[in-house]
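User: My instructor asked us to take a sequence, write out its structure as tokens, and then describe one feature of it. I'm not sure where to start. Here is the sequence I was given:
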Amino acid sequence: MAHRTPIEDGAPSQESLMAISPQEDLAPLAALQSLLDRSITAWFSLTYVGVNPGVSKDEAFNKHIDNLREISSLDSLLQDRQYWFFQLRDSFLNHDRVLKWDSNHLERYILLPVDYGFANNQDCYFVSHYWHTKDHPDPEGSDLRLFQEDLRGEEWSYVWLDWTCMPQVPRTDGEQRYFNRMLRYISMLVRDCAFAWRFPSFEPRAWVLFEVAEFVLTHKGRWVTDDIAPFIAHVDEMVRIGNVHPIIDKYGYRCTKNGDMRLVVGWMEILVIIANIVEDVGVRQCILDVLNRPTVGSYDLIVPGMPNFQIDKRNGTITLDGETWNFTPVFDLTSDA
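Assistant: Let's start with the prediction itself. The structure tokens for your sequence are:
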């Protein structure tokens, strides 16, 4: 396979560097270029799983290589809103505290496109965890040490953890727009990555319930530990009764930020509806991938054995053979975090 690996070509020339005004710090530009080059190199070692009809692996890679070549600043990267920040394995395993996202430490990351196929469960982990305080999810590093113990012996390269991989408050306007946009795709990360969790004792956290629901309802088989068992039981209860709200109320689930609850509940309502009408896990994943497309409107889906399948993202309805289910419209919502 002929790979385009323009690592050297993508670096800024001496002439372009000299054209920068003396007042402009060259270090951030060098750090950004290193991130872009490192990311492109990393893609060719990924277990790429993209199967988009009519789009080859080479085409998918070249599209994003060309796109990264056009990135000239961190602001433009965030504005583009097409890439996840994933923390490198060594960075995750060799610190004693969970690191906050920091634009001054881009050496901790690679970028992976949001497009399906790049994030995958061989190379990437999604970390589900409690936030112990509003100012820091794990101020003592106790949860991090457990995750490090769990993952050190596993084969993987990159990890996604919200505190580390998404801009945190205080955010610039550009960081806030990036945060709001990427939050809508969190469900894709849970579906596509391997899933790591540590819940020292049960606490009714709505974000965790959603993450567990996304994972167990879109994957075959379950590896159940004592700490995740209550969440899985509550997910099963939601599916059994076909309703999210009674379970939220029964067990007292909550979000630290009240405005997040509508977002999380809406996502879980979609999962419960799809789980009840679509038995095949692979088909569920395909339907949810369509839902995660950035456009908001109505779709007629071609689902094997299920004619007349329609989803209206704007109005929050799923229709199959004339029967309609409602969910909270979430695709224009953002977190208030």
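For the description part of your assignment, you could build on this observation: The two ends are 44 Å apart (CA to CA). Try explaining in your own words what that tells you about the chain.
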